[in-house]
Amino acid sequence: MALNTGLDQFVVELYGTSRGQEFGLSCQQFAGMLQEIAGKYLPSQAAPPEIHGFYANLRVQELVLARACAAGHEKAWEIFMGRYRQKLYEIAGYVTKDASAARELADSTYADLFGMTAREGERVSKLASYTGRGSLEGWLRTVIAQEHVNRYRRQRRLVSLEEETEDGVQFATAEPEPVSNVDPRVEAATDEALAGLAPEDRFILASYFLDDRTLAEIARSLDVHESTISRRVGKLTKSLRKQVLATLVKRGLSRRQATEAVEVDVRDLRLHVRDSLQDGASQAFPKKKVEAPASEGSD
Amino acid sequence: MMSNFTSLVKQGLAAAPQGQDHPDANLLSGFAEKTLGAKERLSVLEHLAWCGSCREILSWSFPPATTTDPVVVVSKAGASWMRWPVLRWTAAAACLVVVGAVIILRSGHPKQAPQPGQLFVKTSSSAEKRGAGMNSFASTGPAPGGASAPRASQRLALPKTREENREDVGEEESAHGGASSHQTAEPTLIAEASAAPDTVPGRAKEPASTVAGSAELSRSEADLGRSGQAVPVPRWTLSSEGILQRSLDSGRTWQQMHLSTTATLRAVAANGLKIWVGGSGGALYRSDDAGEHWVQVRPLAGGEFLSADILGIELVDPLHVKLTAAGQQTWTTADAGQTWQK
Questions:
Q1: Angle at A213 between CA B25 and CA B3, to 5 degrees
Q2: Is B71 in contact with A142 (Cβ distance < 8 A)?
Q3: What gap in Å lies between CA A253 and CA A247, rounded to an integer?
Q4: Residue A295: per-residue pLDDT
Q5: Which residues of A touch B35 (CB under 8 A)?
Q6: I need a labelling partner for A181 at 20 to 30 A (CA). Which of A210, A217, B248, B334 fits?
Q7: B34, B42, B71, best to mutate vs chain A, most A CBs in 10 Å
Q8: In the A/B pair of chains, how many CB contacts fall below 8 A?
Q9: Pairwise CA distance, residues B219 & A188, whole Å
Q10: B268-290 pLDDT, tens per residue?
């Protein structure tokens, strides 16, 4: 009971910090908002200290601003426009690398944020989904990136056939599958080695070979030094090959046979992994907006 | 023939588990800004390992890198230059020269007992300080270079009185809007404690060499001697009674830092202006401004607060801290105390 009182008091303190009063938000509404967010990310039986810690990490000022904007509060929009309108264009420019595309993307995102669509008579603003886990600017950056990726995929699918014909593009048949004469043991060993990768290792390899990210970019994602990533990429590719060879030898191949079956040495492995991952790019899941074109992927 | 292995790796890496939900913009931006807890971060990373689209979105979630934006360095200092024998020996020779110069200078200037009201000069070695016994602050660790040692007869500014210090602290607190309204990003219970430094012109309570778990830490001993002048950096020590002491003049004078705690402080670690101090009953405090303001940190892991005595603190960098506590407990944080692992 004492802890809940402590938590309530903390919520009141956070309400004061959030300046929700300026936007006509009551303390109860604010508390309800926090509970809704906690319910989304915390387990249902979270202890008060955990909830306390979670609340303490939220960006309550930005959260209240975003929710006030979502509710159509004029003053909130004035503040939002003053702070983020220009940033929207800058972010869009950074993402698209093209001025006109950037403007279009920024305007479209702004419309989503403003809530140009209505559902059951109520305006639907994207800002209502901001939960204060990170900065509002960072969230906007991610939202714009998501919209860009979705647009790009939609455009790829909607290329006009007539336009392509006029451009002289002939419709090729589907690329024939290469005849595979791979020893199933090699295939199994490779799958096993790849399945054993830790999430972070797989992330590094996929980012490096598949996404062509630089070491610095990968390092920034994982909050480590660039040299650490460099060492890990080398170590992982070496280790993959070793694992595959060891598994093959364990399953009855001689060392020489295994090496021939794998067919690459460490230096070539890097190149091959890159080549192989390129075709497997962006296997998106159909559940959300980011969808893969029908011709990509298997199943 | 290369395509055999190529296609195998491609198939293996491209095969994606079905039914995975994409993390929303809040989680992705939280991942980019490192505001997620360890479990959530791992969950997002597991998804990113398989999903190229989300990796692409994540790459744009970071602000553009600037030339002045350093990559976060986590690795400990394992100075590679030390591998060069020439530099190693040069460094050793330079140390010998500095020590020799100190000895020569000292032998040319007889020690003088400090007068009342005069700040105390730093001495060049711990042994000398211990032997002095009177009116000198002991400090562990290597003394700064000889050029930085002031002459014994030099009269320096008198320390502020306790009342003057209290006024200063009060002004700073009100400038910061009062201690209670300060919002921190700590997931554990936080109370901001004001430190009322108590300048002690006399000797330290006891020589620092007898203090258990204490450490005198200064930001960069290497700064001293380079320019030939002492560069004031905060130094810290703990008395055997568990009171934190700070020096802003390279150990000449020390101030007692009275944190709002009854705990006996046992361990201290500093990195520049950031300092962590811990003690009995899991008492843990952090300051980001060389002890002007303090924040209590209550590490929480697995639903349990740290309640054991903190015996050691290791500050790898401003984000990574490792606590050693009684009962062979080790607590670590990778985000400056926002979340903890046991």
A1: 115
A2: no
A3: 9
A4: 45
A5: 57, 133-134
A6: A210
A7: B71
A8: 254
A9: 54
A10: 998 888 899 998 888 899 888 88
Q: Is residue B115 predicted with pLDDT exceeding 80?
A: no
Please, which residues have CB within 8 angstroms of residue B122's CB and are 6 or more apart in sequence? B137, B139, B143, B144, B149, B150, B250, B251, B252
Q: DSSP of B91-109, one letter per residue?
A: HHHHHHHHHHHHHHHHHHS
| C-alpha distances in Å from residue A234, one per residue of A138, B76, B212 | 32, 21, 44
Q: Would the pLDDT of A3 be above 60?
A: no
- Which residue type does B39 have? K
Provide the 8-state DSSP code for A208. Answer: I
* CB-based burial label for B183 (10 Å; 0-12, 13-18, 19+): middle
CA A294 and chain centroid, separation: 21
B194-252 per-position pLDDT tens digit = 444 444 444 444 443 333 444 443 343 434 444 444 445 688 888 877 888 888 888 87
Pair type for strands B254-257 and B198-200: antiparallel
Q: Which two tokens stand for residue A159?
A: 């290329």
Percentage with pLDDT > 90 across chain A = 41
Judged by DSSP in three states, B45 sits in helix
Contacts of A197 in chain B (CB under 8 A): 49
Whether residues A272 and B2 touch (CB distance < 8 A) is answered with yes
Parse chain A into domains and list their residue ranges.
74-125+141-155, 184-294
Q: What is the DSSP letter of A206?
A: I
Tens digits of residue pLDDT in B40-85: 999 999 999 988 889 999 999 887 766 544 444 444 444 455 556 6
Whether B33 and A290 lie within 8 Å, measured CB to CB: no
Binding-face residues of A in 273-292 toward B, CB within 8 A: 273, 275-277, 279-285, 287-288, 290
**What distance in Å separates residue B233's CA from the closest CA in chain A?**
28
CA distance linking residue B284 with residue B121, whole number of Å: 32
DSSP B174-220: HHTT-STT-----SS---EEE---EEE-S--SS-GGG-TT---B-S-
Whether A179 shows a pLDDT value over 50: the answer reads no
